[in-house]
């Protein structure tokens, strides 16, 4: 089942908070750290799995199917320049497979290729990832909804997460909405309530 709230995790985040975030109801964690070598990324992924899986949370790895398989993760999230969704589905039929999409047509294509969910965004303006295209807005979420579960990303807070759910999103993925908050666990609880 696709989580409703993904928290993106890098080595630089306060990993000691992960058990509390999972206990607060964060049901998905996406390991994304492009600065790490393969072995270190496997180690980080295993560490995340060890502390959040007891709460029932799922762990997916951004971009790297090899790391997801080596670490025993629950899934993989693929960007537009990564391994093709169809290849990931063939190589790892039991994993949760997500695909980055920006239009309904891309969501339809991802579904046909075997994706389980679509990462959709950025919906709102964000500075968590440089070089992103212009925000899509909530109308794009509504237009793309109904094909695959949409996990929207980009500039999300508890208030905007609730708006995204109302617009047709299955759930949200956040970086700054948790990690840049003065109290990440409180932020997570508010986000869980917003997408619940």
Automatic annotation (TrEMBL):
<feature type="binding site">
    <location>
        <begin position="30"/>
        <end position="34"/>
    </location>
    <ligand>
        <name>4-amino-2-methyl-5-(diphosphooxymethyl)pyrimidine</name>
    </ligand>
</feature>
<protein>
    <recommendedName>
        <fullName>Thiamine-phosphate synthase</fullName>
        <ecNumber>2.5.1.3</ecNumber>
    </recommendedName>
</protein>
<feature type="binding site">
    <location>
        <position position="129"/>
    </location>
    <ligand>
        <name>4-amino-2-methyl-5-(diphosphooxymethyl)pyrimidine</name>
    </ligand>
</feature>
<feature type="domain" description="Thiamine phosphate synthase/TenI">
    <location>
        <begin position="12"/>
        <end position="178"/>
    </location>
</feature>
<dbReference type="InterPro" id="IPR036206">
    <property type="entry name" value="ThiamineP_synth_sf"/>
</dbReference>
<comment type="pathway">
    <text>Cofactor biosynthesis; thiamine diphosphate biosynthesis; thiamine phosphate from 4-amino-2-methyl-5-diphosphomethylpyrimidine and 4-methyl-5-(2-phosphoethyl)-thiazole: step 1/1.</text>
</comment>
<feature type="binding site">
    <location>
        <position position="82"/>
    </location>
    <ligand>
        <name>Mg(2+)</name>
    </ligand>
</feature>
<feature type="binding site">
    <location>
        <position position="100"/>
    </location>
    <ligand>
        <name>4-amino-2-methyl-5-(diphosphooxymethyl)pyrimidine</name>
    </ligand>
</feature>
<feature type="binding site">
    <location>
        <position position="63"/>
    </location>
    <ligand>
        <name>Mg(2+)</name>
    </ligand>
</feature>
<dbReference type="InterPro" id="IPR034291">
    <property type="entry name" value="TMP_synthase"/>
</dbReference>
<keyword id="KW-0808">Transferase</keyword>
<comment type="similarity">
    <text>Belongs to the thiamine-phosphate synthase family.</text>
</comment>
<feature type="binding site">
    <location>
        <position position="155"/>
    </location>
    <ligand>
        <name>2-[(2R,5Z)-2-carboxy-4-methylthiazol-5(2H)-ylidene]ethyl phosphate</name>
    </ligand>
</feature>
<comment type="function">
    <text>Condenses 4-methyl-5-(beta-hydroxyethyl)thiazole monophosphate (THZ-P) and 2-methyl-4-amino-5-hydroxymethyl pyrimidine pyrophosphate (HMP-PP) to form thiamine monophosphate (TMP).</text>
</comment>
<keyword id="KW-0460">Magnesium</keyword>
<dbReference type="InterPro" id="IPR022998">
    <property type="entry name" value="ThiamineP_synth_TenI"/>
</dbReference>
<dbReference type="GO" id="GO:0004789">
    <property type="term" value="F:thiamine-phosphate diphosphorylase activity"/>
</dbReference>
<dbReference type="InterPro" id="IPR013785">
    <property type="entry name" value="Aldolase_TIM"/>
</dbReference>
<feature type="binding site">
    <location>
        <begin position="126"/>
        <end position="128"/>
    </location>
    <ligand>
        <name>2-[(2R,5Z)-2-carboxy-4-methylthiazol-5(2H)-ylidene]ethyl phosphate</name>
    </ligand>
</feature>
<keyword id="KW-0479">Metal-binding</keyword>
<keyword id="KW-0784">Thiamine biosynthesis</keyword>
<dbReference type="Pfam" id="PF02581">
    <property type="entry name" value="TMP-TENI"/>
</dbReference>
<feature type="binding site">
    <location>
        <position position="62"/>
    </location>
    <ligand>
        <name>4-amino-2-methyl-5-(diphosphooxymethyl)pyrimidine</name>
    </ligand>
</feature>
């Amino acid at each position: 089942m696709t989580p409703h709230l993904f928290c993106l995790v890098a080595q630089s985040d306060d990993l000691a908070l992960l058990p509390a975030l999972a206990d607060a109801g964060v049901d998905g964690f996406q390991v994304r750290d492009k600065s790490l070598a393969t072995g270190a990324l496997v180690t980080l992924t295993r560490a995340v799995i060890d502390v959040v899986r007891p709460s029932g949370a799922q762990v997916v790895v951004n971009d790297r199917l090899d790391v997801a398989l080596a670490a025993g993760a629950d899934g993989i999230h693929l960007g537009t320049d990564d391994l093709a969704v169809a290849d990931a589905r063939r190589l790892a039929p039991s994993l949760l497979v997500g695909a980055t999409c920006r239009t309904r047509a891309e969501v339809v294509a991802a579904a046909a290729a075997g994706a389980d969910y679509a990462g959709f965004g950025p919906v709102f303006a964000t500075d968590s990832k440089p070089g992103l295209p212009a925000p899509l807005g909530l109308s794009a979420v509504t237009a793309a909804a109904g094909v695959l579960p949409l996990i929207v990303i980009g500039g999300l807070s508890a208030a905007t997460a609730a708006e995204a759910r109302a617009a047709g999103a299955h759930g949200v993925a956040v970086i700054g909405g948790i990690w840049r908050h003065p109290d990440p666990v409180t932020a997570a609880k508010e986000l869980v309530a917003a997408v619940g």
